[in-house]
Design goal:
Residues 181-294 form the SPARC/Testican calcium-binding domain. One of its GO terms (cellular component) is extracellular space. This is SPARC/Testican calcium-binding domain-containing protein. This protein is mainly alpha-helical and 324 residues long. Among the domains are: 105-175, Wheat Germ Agglutinin (Isolectin 2), domain 1 (2-Layer Sandwich), CATH 3.30.60.30; 186-315, Orthogonal Bundle (Recoverin, domain 1), CATH 1.10.238. It has 13 helices and 7 strands. The strands form 3 sheets. It has a 3-stranded antiparallel β-sheet. Helix 1 packs antiparallel against helix 2, helix 7 crosses helix 9 (228-243) and helix 8 runs antiparallel to helix 9. The protein is globular and about 60 Å long. The protein starts with a helix and ends in an 8-residue tail after the last helix. Bound molecules: 2-acetamido-2-deoxy-beta-D-glucopyranose (3 copies). One 2-acetamido-2-deoxy-beta-D-glucopyranose binds next to helix 8 and helix 13.
């Protein structure tokens, strides 16, 4: 990035001016990334959210699903199992079996019609842990991701619980309470690719240890574990391939970066300028080569394999019903 070369000349005034300009530019890009949404972007984001709901959030949804089941007087199959009574209505298969709903929704069984419907989560689990708070694109702190998605669902279904028309488009900007972000210093930015590589590898390893890494990436992970020189490259390939899914077109758009941006933002104030550095030609798309370069990896290892993996993934792709 040219501006950082100039900074290295050590002209004090330039440092000040460029820091301001750099920040303004990064802010602009963030705005672009998060606020200038058209409908396609919104669809994309909903898919990403649906796929990348964290494990915690999955738990939240399970809890909420149970609450919903109570609300709608279905899901007593288990009780019947325990106390089989003669003359009871024969057990129905759960119409919600296999139905996946988007963020903020749960499946509700329509018993009469024997089908599952996605409805807004009736009630989010009470959150006492402040770490579960999220900051939205409106710079408002909410109790949990569930609350944000539930509210959005209500606003999209004309539910009287909708507090504001504009909340139809609310989404999570980053995890944690809304706050003032410190500036990203030149040193911090210089160190960022290393931290990012570390983070990617650790996430991949963690997923693998929990058996949550898709089968196709297990070989990459294993290789990364056993061969230090492949560690960062393979983690980078895995994440890039995973990000490039909406659509799968061999580039990662700025919007496709959302899943890594949100969790990192609260921890890493340099994420915005870093992502900007991943797109030096400003075409709003990041190729695998650009991704490798901004993570400071050797280019050689970065090709071919991703295509194979993504192709296999594509075959298995399933969209959640009613995702947005
Ligand atoms: C967002 O809210 C926080 C906390 O209220 C505040 O410190 C910060 O300046 C706000 N950010 C923006 C961009 O308005
Ligand atoms: C580790 O990976 C490097 C780079 O691809 C390769 O040259 C080397 O042979 C590998 N080492 C082992 C022990 O597999
Ligand atoms: C795709 O599905 C097949 C069969 O269900 C499975 O063997 C394969 O591992 C899956 N691939 C991925 C990438 O999940």
């Amino acid at each position: 990035m040219a501006k950082f070369h100039v900074v290295r000349l050590g002209v004090a005034l330039a440092v000040v001016l460029l820091a301001v300009a750099g920040r303004a530019h990064a802010d602009e890009l963030l705005d672009e990334l998060l606020n200038e949404f058209d409908d396609d972007d919104e669809v994309l984001l909903r898919h990403i959210e649906a796929k990348h709901v964290s494990r915690d959030y999955e738990l939240e949804r399970e809890l909420a699903a149970r609450i919903a089941a109570d609300h709608y007087a279905y899901g007593q199959a288990e009780e019947e199992d325990e106390t089989p009574l003669e003359g009871r209505v024969p057990r129905l298969t759960d119409p919600c079996k296999g139905v996946r709903c988007g963020a903020g929704r749960v499946c509700s069984a329509n018993v009469a019609e024997q089908r599952g419907e996605c409805i807004c989560i009736p009630e989010c689990p009470a959150e006492t842990d402040p770490r579960r708070k999220v900051c939205t694109n409106r710079n408002e702190t909410w109790e949990s991701a569930c609350e944000v998605h539930r509210q959005r669902c209500m606003c999209n279904t004309r539910d009287p619980g909708c507090r504001h028309e504009e909340l139809r488009h609310v989404h999570i900007d980053y995890y944690g309470t809304c706050r003032e972000m410190p500036d990203c210093s030149e040193n911090d930015l210089a160190d960022f690719p290393r931290r990012m590589r570390d983070w990617l590898f650790n996430v991949m390893r963690d997923l693998a240890s929990r058996n949550e890494l898709p089968e196709a990436y297990m070989a990459l992970e294993h290789e990364a574990e056993t061969n230090m020189t492949k560690r960062w490259t393979n983690a980078a390939i895995w994440k890039w391939c995973e990000l490039d899914g909406y659509p799968h077109d061999n580039t990662v758009s700025r919007h496709e970066l959302f899943p890594i941006r949100a969790p990192l933002f609260a921890l890493e104030h340099c994420i915005a300028p870093f992502l900007e550095s991943c797109d030096p030609n400003r075409d709003h798309r990041i190729s695998l080569q650009e991704w490798g370069k901004c993570l400071e990896l050797e280019e050689d290892d970065l090709t071919a394999r991703c295509a194979e993996i993504s192709k296999e993934e594509e075959l298995n792709k399933s969209s959640p019903q009613d995702a947005y």
